[in-house]
Amino acid sequence: MSAIRIFWIGGLISFRALFHWLNPWIYVPTLLVAPLFQILLFVYVGRAARIESDSFFLIGNALQGAAVPCLFAMGHTIAGERFTQTLGLLLTTPASRVPLFLGRAAPVVANGWIVSMFGLGVGGVLVGVDIPPDRWVPLALVVALASASCTGLGLINAALGLKVRQTATFSNIIVGILLVVCGVNVPLAALPTWLRAVSEWLPLTHAVEAARLLADGDTLRSVVPLLGREAGLAAGFIVVGLVILRAFERSSRRTASLERQ
Amino acid sequence: MSAVEAIDLRRSFSSRTSVLRRAKETVEAVRGVSFVIERGEIFGLLGPNGAGKTTTIKMLITLLLPSSGSAKVLGYDVARDAVKVRRRIGYAFGGDRGLYDRLSAQDNLRYFAELYAVPPRTQRARIGELLELVGLRGREKERVEGYSRGMRQRLHIARALLHDPAVLFLDEPSIGIDPVGARELRATVAALAGQGKTILLTTHYMFEADELCDRIAVIGSGRILAEGTPADLKSRVRGGRVLEVETFGVLDESVDDVRRLDGVRSVTVEARTQSQVLHVSMDSEAELTAAVLGRIGDVRVGRVASREPTLEDAYVELIGER
């Protein structure tokens, strides 16, 4: 009972505590409008260069739009506590760490989903890509999985926040890697072999491919293997993130890494 | 079984000097601290900045592992039984930080009530009781960012009490609070002791320690320099007197000359806006007023007074002996 309450109620209160500054005046321009520029940029570059379709760039960039809020927000769930000097207080509670940190991840996944779906819908209208109405439900599922896998990677990034202060630096690097390597704007076939191998182990790669197939008319059943791999990566990242969190929390007692503000 | 037992606690910190020069520096913050706090006691830990007070507390609240030595809280080892210790202790520190500023006081308390597994059925009533206890009833729905430092401090204490812990660690809780707020805070701490809580309090304010603490340990450079009741500590300088001399522009060399006088135990200089006040602790039988004034030199002298020693004098003498 306590774990469920920590997951749901604790997760929501802590999200409000750490992200209350994200009022509509900041949220709308930063998380909803700005990703549209990225979509427009790549669609117009694609048109000018006569490569790929508008749909290719729309879907890739809309899904990649989830990476920014998911990675940065998860990193902030630890870095923000360090800043407000509540991290020590949090870690001296007897609360189980699994629901504590997964509860923080749940609103982040939801937010990533909203950002990505907004980009897909409004971006589609702006560039004139017409996604059939029956495609939206399976696409929503794919976007949820993409947000979850990005959040899972963000959890690993958050765990690093117990060791170092600059999780935003890692987030920036990871967002850049995802932009280049996951087939968002560059077809996987155009990547060097080793980068293609790397992309298999990153969030977004399989979700982006599945979303494009769904938008082209494939059935949900036909993309299940891709979704399975994306879900597997999400679960793997979350498990690794929790293991690292546990290890770093233990080592922080020895190394005093929480002392650094 | 004692509430808190620290045996030869030691803690050192290592740091790298810079990114390029990787020379390792090790600082010993706590160097063999031992004390026992009995149940229901208020135990004060006094010491200057950097003495090791906060590091000691952080080891006792399971946030840091001792480099060596051991400590138990209510019989549980702080290194091995961390979760059991956490369930039984509350911790509050002084200053502006450590709260979720954009949440209300009520939501700050709700969140920690969940983390301390306060049962949902009693949570609302418990939060109400604590808001009443710390005098924040009626302000609980306001965002903490609009709170004064005193209100924040009282909210810290309410949070530390959510799960009704048997042992409370208060790390400089009254730092930076105005006199009225500090008095209210002392009343709250005294009331908690009246309810049977064991309290470890660190403070810089001697009158606060004198008023609240059953026993005090003075810590300096990571070591316990003295331990006892406030009366015990004062008796260390009893049999002595303190001469206060207000000066305007006294030189360091002159202060050193005063220190060298026979019968002088210690000298501290309190810098004020325009003047410097010398507190000269001396043997009671010594009549040194003329000698002290002679050593001060030609600088202008204001008020000169002699008084009985206080806990602060005992503290200064102990710290000065290092």
From TrEMBL, chain A:
Its main location: membrane. Signal peptide: none annotated. InterPro entries: ABC2_TM, ABC_2_transport, Nod_factor_ABC_transporter. Keywords: Antibiotic resistance, ATP-binding, Membrane, Nucleotide-binding, Transmembrane, Transmembrane helix. The chain crosses the membrane at residues 25-45, 105-127, 139-160, 172-195, 231-248. GO terms for molecular function: ATP binding. The keyword Nucleotide-binding applies. It is a multi-pass membrane protein. Residues 23-212 form the ABC-2 type transporter transmembrane domain. It is found in: Membrane. This is ABC transporter ATP-binding protein. It comes from Actinoplanes couchii.
